[in-house]
Design a protein that fits this description.
Layout (H helix, E strand, L loop, with lengths): L24 E9 L5 E11 L2 E10 L5 E9 L4 E2 L4 E4 L3 E5 L3 E7 L3 E9 L4 E2 L5 E4 L2 E4 L1 E14 L2 E13 L1
Antiparallel strand pairs: 1-2, 1-14, 2-3, 3-4, 5-6, 6-7, 7-8, 8-9, 9-13, 10-13, 11-12, 13-14
């Protein structure tokens, strides 16, 4: 049985920033492993709100709980938020690509990560249509829950080849 639900947003068109002051958010969470079986968790999040861009990169090595993270708040004139395609660049992270293939990267004071993401699963539209009430207004949101990840993580000078899964929320 195939059920069709109408959507009110276009995931392919809405990856790009909407416009300054529109409260855009791109959130990526990954569970990754290297060839030796080490497990790493990563979060990369860019959010434009109230005239600034917040950038967060957070990394955790599961075995020993080693963490590395960095958060910045930068004025919009110091970052790149493209409105015609996904191209977000701050001092700590970069996001680019299209609905089926994305590239994300981030740096902290002691680590850096670069991931290529390939969409394997369907787009998940929040509220079924992609639009829902939010703080007295309406917001659009979708998720890419089935992203296959591959790339590298360098922690304190040691580079790990990674594979795993990533979830992306775009609001």
């Amino acid at each position: 049985m195939n059920t069709f639900h109408p959507t009110l947003i276009s995931a392919a068109d809405d990856l790009a920033a909407t416009a300054p002051g529109k409260n855009d958010s791109w959130w990526f969470a990954s569970r990754l492993h290297d060839e030796d079986g080490n497990v790493f968790w990563a979060k990369i999040h860019a959010m434009e709100t109230e005239g600034a861009c917040h950038g967060t990169v957070a990394l955790v090595r599961e075995a020993d709980g080693h963490t590395s993270d960095k958060h910045t708040v930068e004025p919009l004139h110091d970052v790149k938020l493209s409105t015609d395609r996904l191209d977000v660049q701050t001092s700590v992270l970069n996001l680019s690509g299209g609905l089926d293939e994305l590239n994300i990267s981030g740096t902290t004071d002691t680590a850096s990560i670069r991931l290529a993401l390939r969409r394997e699963g369907p787009v998940l539209f929040s509220g079924g249509s992609g639009l829902f009430p939010f703080f007295g207004g309406t917001t659009g949101q979708f998720a890419l829950p089935g992203l296959i990840a591959s790339g590298t993580l360098t922690v304190e000078g040691v580079t790990h080849q990674l594979t795993g899964r990533t979830w992306c929320d775009r609001q």
